[in-house]
Each structure stands twice: as C-alpha cells, then as structure tokens.
Amino acid sequence: MKQALTFKVLCTYLSLLVSLFLFRWQFWAFNHRYFSFQLMDFIHGVRFDLSLVGYLAFFSLPMFLLLGIIPNLKWRRYGLIALSLLLFIPCLLTECWDLVYFQYTLKRCSFDLYLFFGAGEDQSMWQPMLQRFWHLPLLWVAWTAAFLLTVMRIYKKVDDHRALKSLVIGFSTLFVLAFIIARNSFGPKPLGILDATSFDAPARSQLVLNSPFVVLKTLHNKPLTHREYMSREEEKKYFNPLTAYGAKSRMSQPNLIFFVLESFGAAQLRDTVNGLPLTPFLDSLFFMDPTTVYTHGLSNGKTSIECLPAIFAGIPSLQEVPYVISNYCTNEVDGFPQIARARGYSTLFFHGADEGSMRFSTTVEQLGFKSTFFKPKTHGNPQELGSWGYHDGAVFTTMLKELSRCTKPFLSAAFTLSSHEPYDLPAFHQKKYPQLPKEASSYRYTDDCLRAFFMSAKKEPWFANTLIIITGDHTPVHLDNSTYSIADYYRVPIAVVNGKFKKQGPIEHLNIVPWLCETLGWRVNLYGYGNDLKGDHVRYLNGIYHVWNQHTYLEYNEHIQQWKLRVNTSDNPRSIDSMKKRFLAKIQRFRNDLRWNTLHP
Fold first, then answer.
1. Could you read off the pLDDT of 88-133 as tens digits, one per residue?
2. Are 102 and 20 within one domain?
3. DSSP state of 537
4. Do 122 and 254 sit in the same domain of this protein?
5. I need a surface site. Which of 129, 231, 259, 317 has the fewest CB within 10 A?
6. What is the pTM of this model?
7. Pick from 28, 54, 81: which is nearest to 213 by CA?
C-alpha cells in the first residue's frame, strides 16, 4: 500500500516526539539522585516536546516539500533521510551534553553557554570530562543508528505520484498545525522555559523541559559577557553575596504584607493636580505616622518584571535582558517566600491580571509563593474589570478575605495594576474626581484603595502583629527627564509600616529582605546583592553601568573598557580604585552565579 509523502513526514515528526520522550527517561536515569520519581513530570514534559517538534516542523516542512518533488527517486529518498537526521542530531547532541552538564549546575544548558564553551573557555576541562563520561559517544552512536534505521524504513519507498497541488494542500495543513503546536498556548505569549516551573518545584522543571527546547528558546537572547577581572580569591575580598543573619536580636515572626505599586515613583507622593492631592493617605502614612520607617529608596530596574526577583531573591538587573526572560530564568533561587514557608508561614500572592501577564505566575511560584490569586480567583464586579484585569480595589478586597481565613503567620504580596496605562478606571471613581486627568486619577484611585484596605484590616485580630512593606516597582518611565540624576531614574518610595523601629529602613529593593531578616532576628544564610545597606549602588542603563555612593559617581562602558568619573567628593585618593574593584567583583560573581546556577546559599 502506497503512503502519501505527507504521512511519511508526519511519521518523521512522531519519531522525533517519541525520541524526546525517551530522552527524558534517559535524563532521569543518569540524574535520578537529584529527582524522586514522579510520573507527572514525564506527562507535563510532553507539552514541551510537542512544542519543540512544532517549531522543527514549522521551519522544515518547506524543505521536505521541495525534496518531495525531486524527480530522481534515489536522491529524493537520500534527501528526505538526510533532512530527518539534520533535525534529530542537534536534539541528540544537546540531550547528551546535558547528561554531563546538569551534574555540575543542576540546570539544562542554554544557547549562550554553548557559545561560551565553543569559544575555547576552560579547554582544560575536556580531557577529564571525556575520560569520566567515555560512554556518551557510544550512546550518541547508538541513538543515531536507531533513528537512521527508523527513517530509512519510513522512506523505504518514496514514489509518491500525487499531484503537486495535493502535496501543497497536505503540507499547508501540517504547517498550520505545526504553528499551533509550537505556540502551545492560548495566552498572550507562547510556551516558554519558565512555564516549566508552574507544574512543581523549580528544581524539577529541568526534568519537565527538554534540552533542545531550552536552546531554541535562548537563541535570541544576548550571550552573557565573559570577562575575568580578578581571581576568585581577590573577588571574595571585595564582594560576597552570602550573609549570615540572626545572631544579634531575638527572633520574631510577624505577619508580612508587601504592596508593590505599579509605576509609582517617589515623585508621585505629596503631589497635587488641579488642587487635588494624589496620595493623601500614603502621605499621612509615610510622613506623619510614628509606626512608619520611610525612605526615598531605589528600584532595581525600569520595568515591572525586574522588581519581584530583586525584592524576594536579591537578584539585581546587571544584564541587558531581565532575569525572568533570560537564559537563566529556571536557575535555583532561595526566595524569601521559601524561607518564610520553612518557618511556618502561609505565602500568598495577589495580582488582578491573567496568570501569564509579565510571567508573574511562574516567577512567584519560583520564588516560593504557594497560593496565587490572579484574575480568575479575584472577586469583583464588572465595573472593576479593566483592560489588564481587575483593578486594585477588587484585588485588595480578595486579599483581605484570604488573609483573614489563612493560617497565621502569613507572608502576602499584592502587585497593583491600576496605575498602568490605559488607566481605564472604574466609572464610579472617574465620577468622583472629574478634575483629574486619567494618569493622575489612577494614583488617587490606588491611594483610596489602600486607605480602604487599612481601615478594614485594622479591625482584624491579625493586624496588630503585621508589618506592611509598601514600595513602587519603578518610576513612571515617561516622566523621566534630562534633569534627573542617576538616582532619580530609580527613586521610589520604600516604607515599612506598623512597627516600632529606631533605625534607618531599607534603601533599595535589593535590601528590603536583608533588612527584615536582620530586624526580625531570623537566623538565615541569605544570598543577595543588597545585603550591605551602606554599599555602592549599581544599575545598568542604556548600555552603561552606573556605580555610585554618597561621595562618588562612576560610569563604565564595558564594551570599550572605559571609565568616566562624574562626581567625586571623597578625600580618600584610593576610594575610586576600591570602588571600581568592588563593582568588577560584583558583576564577575553575578555572571558566574548565573552561568553555574549558584544564585543561592
């Protein structure tokens, strides 16, 4: 019985799919000491296998069609077999490589790491690795031979005499299916690497993923710069992201609530528009309430997705691509919610948008939030539903209900969205402040919602034992101007409310959690880039590193290895050299920790 070429090509893709599924079993067999067996990991992994095969089909189907119309049957068969092998061998190579690589970093290899090794870095490692893993070349040959025999059987006969029109229709159908399967998502974004963390603990995501999918998804990301500025011993003299806390004070475990306010800079406080204050409640809370420690602090970056990893895992934004969409987004981190859960805390996260918005759902799960409440779980009326999702009032109401019923103590975080354009606020609020333009009105709306939350929360028995941290995720970027200092570009409010403190509060996102751990007396080894409250500030903006403290401001263009001294009021002639060393040690350590999956104690 003659089989159509479209069916044979489909069989090729199915063979690739089966191979990927078997590769996952091979990966587990080699690394089973890192994973307890859970069948659901293999079932969830099929989704990523399908997506990869969809991408391969999407790009290779036109070539299969061209090979299918070659008049010479012999060369047609050879061409179809060769193309099939061309799809299979890169998948096999990446899978075999990760059998080794995973044992060193506990993650699958991204594309930039292949460039790193291919550029000749650490050549001394190859000989001992080949001696230790001598069986991998044999495994590669066996897999290649098995797949070759399979496709030779599939293309044993290729004398398909169907009309070209029929072939084009068949391949077009496969092409559309390939696109749907590759995307593998009905949300705003296609299936990504970080989605693997939504099924289970982040460490298990490496079993759910497959190696070629990780490489494919990191092809477009800019490779991590590799420069060795100093030895590891010298690096430790100038910077160490590990700090031990808990030896100085008695431990306390209050409830913790984080409010992260969208596009909310320090400049929005004490501001008025048309005679109406934008943040009257926050103004009174921050500047007149004796239980509040307030700082004109610094955000970690200029986008929302940079905020949560900075606050809850101490991860800075020192690269071109934000961490959560970088090649390293599935690295193991020791998030503050994980630390709190180990101390008996319930952990909850609230956001009014859909789960896929800004990768928040996978990000907060990776950080350790156990219970998450996005748009589907938010209780609100239709008036409170905007373009992005439920507005802040509905989110805070849902949050209040959940906090009252959850086990205490709790760690909760709410990320607002109403002060994000298009500012389509509920009609009842627009009527309340008709003199305010939309953006200004959005700040007043969030302020009113916070006031209502506090008024209700104060009636709850848990409120007296609750610390509330309020900050902005970043400044409103469109309001930045050329008169700003470098710090002004990141200036956001940071306040700790409902406590009795006699010391300075945290001064940037990166040291909110270190400040809390020290203040509460938690005995913990903490990883982060904000552990030193008096340290230098470092930001990466528009291709330039900006490094500053109260005396000195430096700019560093790494591409051309050029420093510029902008400000210096220090009397110490060696302070600039020391500052440069501290910065270089910091970015060297950060890049190595990203590359080798050591963003944790």
1. 999 999 999 999 878 776 778 888 777 766 655 445 456 666 677 7
2. yes
3. E
4. no
5. 231
6. 0.79
7. 54
